[in-house]
Structure formats: C-alpha cells, structure tokens
Amino acid sequence: MEWVRVAAFSSSANLGPGFDALAVALDAFYDIVEARIEYDARGVIVDRVEGVYAREVPAKGNTAAAAAWRLLQLLRIKDVGVVLRVRKGIPPGKGLGSSGASAAAAVVAVSRLLRVNPPTELLLEAAGYGEQMASGTPHYDNVAASLLGGLVIVAEVEGRLAASNIKVDATFVVGVPMVEMPEGKTGVMRKVLPPRVELGRAVANWQRLALLVASMIRGDYQLAGKLMMGDEIVEPARAPYIPCYREVRSAALEAGAFGVAISGAGPSMIALVSPGAAREVASAINQAYSECGLEAIVRVARVAGPTTIVASK
C-alpha cells in the first residue's frame, strides 16, 4: 500500500450528565488524513494542512502527527518515515472533537498503511496522546467516538482505558456559533467546574447517565432528551460562558427538540430531535443565534460510524 486516505467524524461529548464518560460521533463534519511512506525519512512529517478550517501549525503541534508518532512508538517501529496530509473539515475549538478526529484518522491511516492491526486500546492511547497536543490533556471520550463511531462510553478499568460503543439511530441538530473563545478554551472551561460536589448531586448525575445510556439503546429519545438536560454539575457551571445558551435552548425546545446540551466544552450546542422535527429545530436555532447577533453554522446530523478508509493505493 503506497498511501491511504481516512475520514473521521466530529463528536459531541458529555450529552449532559456524561462528563468525561460519554460521547457520540456525528456526521455533521469530518476530517481527512492521508498517510504515505517516506523511505528516505524517519518519524512523522506533516506535508500539508488544508481545508476550510486548516490551521497552519508546525508538525510538533499537530494532533495527527503526534498521534501517528505515538503509534509508531507503541508499535516499536523505528525504521520508517510517514508523511501526513490533513484536511480540516471540523471547526476547531468549538466543542466538536476537531483535534480528536484528526488524531483518530491519523492512527487508523498509519496502521492500515503499515498493514498492522493494533488493538483498539492501543489506537485510543495513541490518538489520545495526539489530542493532548491541542487541549493539554487527552479526552478519550471525543477520540473514542471518532475512532469507534456510535454512542461511546469510556472508563478507566484497573489502570487501563476501556471503551465500548453502541449503535444508535438518533438525529441531532448541531449549532456552532462562530465566536472566538479563550486560548486553551477546554482548560478554561474545566477551571469553572466545582472542585467538590455534594454526594446527592453526584448520585443524581450517575443515575441520569445510566438511564440516558439505557434510553438511547432502547430508542426512547424523548426520555433521553430529558435526561440530557438533567446535569446538575457541569452544564450549570459552564452555561454562563456559552454564547446565547438560554436563547438557543429555549428556541430548540419550543420547536420540538427532545433535549438540548452543550457539546463538550462548547461553545457549540446539540439538540436531540425526531427526524420529522429536525428542519424546524435547525431553523429555530439559527434564528436564535441571529437574534443574538451571532453568525452560526447549524446542521442536522445523524450518529456517525467509525473512522473509515475512503481511498488507498
């Protein structure tokens, strides 16, 4: 195989009470990473970063390059060079797992290019390392969603990362306000969270998270939407920092959304909807942003599949 081209979809983490544990892959946006062997080089080189949301950054600061390098390290492959081209189709810094998607696409591209089949946990570790380049810490929920597709649950088990994905047939509306957020936005949005939580509130969140997963599996999206809005810890702390949070939430619910939540650390928001109400909810969200004086991208999205090879030679 001379080269391989891989696509990875955007993701939305938390879905309300699932902080750092739950995420869903969505086909609203996607990144593409192309990898090829460079026989006269060693390590990983980023040849080009292009696309609508391209960021011209050095290879050492590129999440795809860092993930690919970590994968080679974990596989103990030293005598090969890999050249990457990254096409950014996911808006960066908007709570849509942009950096995680690039990292996920890179590790799949490199493993297929080298004809190796690493276990999922190793791919997650490498992609998480790459994603850390952008956010300062690995967020395995976003990475796992882009890598595995579907609704994904991640947890540490006996000191090792474990992830499980569930195929669900759900429809969301994604609202992306095109606003500038603080540098290191994810870290900033973590600092606003309470350092301690009263046991009763924590229990309430655990209960809602468990029932949210069960309701998504059953296809009871009306209940799932209510549970998405039941977070008592993270979303209330972050909501004041999300542009037009109340306006978008109210508009989506009035238009028929089952539930609304911040997408990851924001500023994007997601609404769980029935397919029949998707267009009306999208229009309402777009109007809410417009009345707030903000330009926004609003898209109807379905739950996406895993990182996928789209071409190879």
Low-confidence stretches: 56-60
CATH class of the largest domain equals Alpha Beta
Question: What integer value in Å does the Rg equal?
Answer: 19 Å
Rounded to the nearest angstrom, the distance between the terminal CA atoms is 6 Å
What's the total count of β strands? 11
User: What's the CATH architecture of the largest domain?
Assistant: 2-Layer Sandwich
Number of domains: 2
Predict the CATH topology of the largest domain: Ribosomal Protein S5, domain 2
Largest sheet: 7 strands, mixed
Structure description:
The chain has 313 residues and is α+β, with helices and mostly antiparallel strands. The protein folds into 2 domains: 3-167, Ribosomal Protein S5, domain 2 (2-Layer Sandwich); 171-302, 2-Layer Sandwich (Alpha-Beta Plaits), CATH 3.30.70. 38% of the residues lie in helices and 29% in strands. It contains 10 helices and 11 strands. Mean pLDDT is 90; it is low at 56-60.
Fold blueprint:
Elements: E1 3-14, E2 18-38, E3 43-50, H1 63-75, E4 81-87, H2 98-113, H3 120-135, H4 140-148, E5 151-157, E6 160-166, E7 171-177, H5 185-191, H6 199-218, H7 221-228, H8 234-238, H9 245-254, E8 259-262, E9 269-273, H10 278-291, E10 296-302, E11 308-312
Parallel strand pairs: 3-4
Antiparallel strand pairs: 1-2, 1-11, 2-4, 2-5, 5-6, 7-9, 7-10, 8-9
Brief overview, please?
The chain contains ten helices and eleven strands.
